[in-house]
Design goal:
Blueprint: E1 2-5, H1 20-32, E2 37-41, H2 54-70, E3 76-80, H3 84-93, E4 97-100, H4 109-117, E5 120-124, H5 142-159, E6 167-170, H6 179-187, H7 189-193, E7 200-201, H8 207-213, H9 221-233, E8 238-239, H10 244-259
Parallel strand pairs: 1-2, 2-3, 3-4, 4-5, 5-6, 7-8
Helix pairs in contact: 1-2, 2-3, 9-10
The structure holds 6-hydroxymethylpterin-diphosphate.
6-hydroxymethylpterin-diphosphate binds next to strand 1 and strand 5.
């Protein structure tokens, strides 16, 4: 899953693809690098980020998705949003996957859209909301807590009519978690995989990699690769990254080693 942020303020690439033509060109490049899914987002969820109105989010993402669809991009288009109105317009423009970092808690009606249109979706764990989520996060047992949350959100989505086979789950690396929490989630990712749905991981360029390596955001690819390879070994199946080509190569080698192909 390649990240396509159409925002002025995303933590690693804010402002680079705000123009629709630049976003489409970057999306096509990610697809050529081998992304199966392009995750288009118009609202940054970095720690401390301020919310964006639906009108502004629509203004950012719809032209980019329309452009990707018109270009016949060879990847599934995902809309990274928490808002029903944004998802509806994105689907009309060609998106068939909804990535909601609130797991249908912000706008529960989003589950109805996903169900009615037969869309794929990702339900992610987040403690609190982006503005405050990094203020002293505490868990009894982070893996058990995240697993129980995802199990409950999976059941809620199925109860709302979403087909279980359309649902992917994500522990939400960096969303209301300390460095130790992120590492424990990655180390024990097999416990999340045991829920039986494909697991998505998003470690790409995140600040915990900077904490471990001392690297700035543009120099965190080695840490991104290490975490994705470990996640694959523990059973993850979707890898949300900014740098598709190098991560794809690393995962091809890791998968061949782990699975014998
Ligand atoms: N991480 C980010 C955004 N959306 N969605 C899922 N499912 N999993 C993630 O880990 C995840 C996500 C944050 O990364 P990015 O999009 O690069 O930054 P920003 O939120 O600042 O736009």
């Amino acid at each position: 899953m390649g990240v396509l942020n159409v925002t002025p303020d995303s933590f690693s690439d804010g402002g680079r693809f705000l123009d629709a033509a630049a976003a489409v060109a970057h999306g096509r490049a990610l697809a050529e690098e081998g992304a199966d899914v392009l995750d288009v987002g118009g609202e940054s969820t970095r720690p401390g980020a301020a919310p964006v109105s639906a009108a502004e989010e629509l203004r950012r993402v719809v032209p980019a998705i329309e452009g990707l669809t018109a270009a016949g991009v060879a990847a599934q288009i995902s809309i990274d949003t928490t808002k029903l109105a944004v998802a509806e317009a994105a689907v009309a423009a060609g998106a068939t996957y909804v990535n909601d970092v609130t797991a249908f808690r912000a706008e529960p009606e989003l589950a109805g859209l996903v169900a009615a249109r037969g869309l794929d979706c990702c339900l992610m764990h987040m403690r609190g909301e982006p503005r405050t989520m990094q203020e002293n996060p505490v868990y009894d047992d982070v893996v058990a807590d995240v697993k129980a949350f995802l199990e409950q959100r999976l059941a809620a989505a199925v109860a709302a009519g979403v087909a279980e086979e359309r649902i992917q789950l994500d522990p939400g690396i960096g969303f209301g978690k300390t460095l130790a929490h992120n590492l424990e989630l990655l180390r024990r990712l097999d416990e999340i995989v045991a829920l039986g749905r494909p697991v998505v991981v998003g470690t790409s360029r995140k600040s915990f990699l900077g904490r471990l390596t001392g690297r700035e955001v543009e120099d965190r690819l080695p840490g991104t690769i290490a975490t994705n390879v470990l996640a694959l070994e523990r059973g993850a199946s979707v890898f949300r990254v900014h740098d598709v080509a190098p991560v794809r190569d690393a995962l091809a080698v890791a998968a061949a080693t782990v699975r014998g192909r």
